Amino acid sequence: MVKISLIPGIKQAQGISLTPQLIQSIKLFELNNIDLEHYLADQILENPFLENKDDSYDESLDPNDETTNNENCIHASVNNASFVGSTYQYILSSKIGKLYVISGDTNNPLKVGEEVFLSLDEKDVKVLND
């Protein structure tokens, strides 16, 4: 005769499944500040339900203001400042959109929220503080 017995037991297992949202999160965490800004700007352009509420550009300031003494300048405000290697990388908001600036001037870094003017000439761009 065969004897049948029931043995109660609990088995525990742990696992993780890589969902599309988790994969996207991992990729976003790997991006540096500038690449993340580019990615977000692209997403805002592609998705009509997204908008950027972080634009701190003050349109009441005239880029041709007498304080700049230069008709070829753009008013901008510093949104992000990062020290990378031996340079500063800035993301500026302006009337023409986001501007990405790399500066070798490590003695006088710009601060987030600071208002600046970009002076344009044939050879380079200069950042003029107020």
Structure explained in plain terms:
The chain has 130 residues and is of the alpha+beta class. The chain has a domain at 73-129: OB fold (Dihydrolipoamide Acetyltransferase, E2P) (Beta Barrel), CATH 2.40.50. Helix content is 19%, strand content 29%. It has helices at residues 20-30, 33-46, and strands spanning 73-84, 87-94, 97-103, 115-120, 125-129. Strands 3-2-1-4-5 form a 5-stranded antiparallel sheet, covered by helices on one side. A hairpin with a 2-residue loop joins strand 1 (73-84) and strand 2 (87-94). The longest helix is centred in the N-terminal third of the chain and has 14 residues, at 33-46. It is elongated and about 100 Å long. The protein starts with 19 loop residues before the first helix and ends with a strand. Residues 56-70 have low confidence and may be disordered.
How far the N terminus sits from the C terminus, by CA atoms, comes to: 98 Å
Please write the string of helix (H) and strand (E) elements.
HHEEEEE
CATH fold label of the domain at 73-129? OB fold (Dihydrolipoamide Acetyltransferase, E2P)
Q: Strand order of the main beta sheet, please?
A: 3-2-1-4-5
What is the approximate shape? elongated
The poorly predicted ranges are: 56-70
Helicity range of the residues? 10-25%
Mean pLDDT: 76
State the major sheet.
5 strands, antiparallel
Give me the Rg, rounded. Answer: 26 Å
Give the class-level CATH name of the domain at 73-129. Mainly Beta
Give the structural class. alpha+beta
Helix run count: 2
What share of residues are in beta strands? Answer: 25-35%
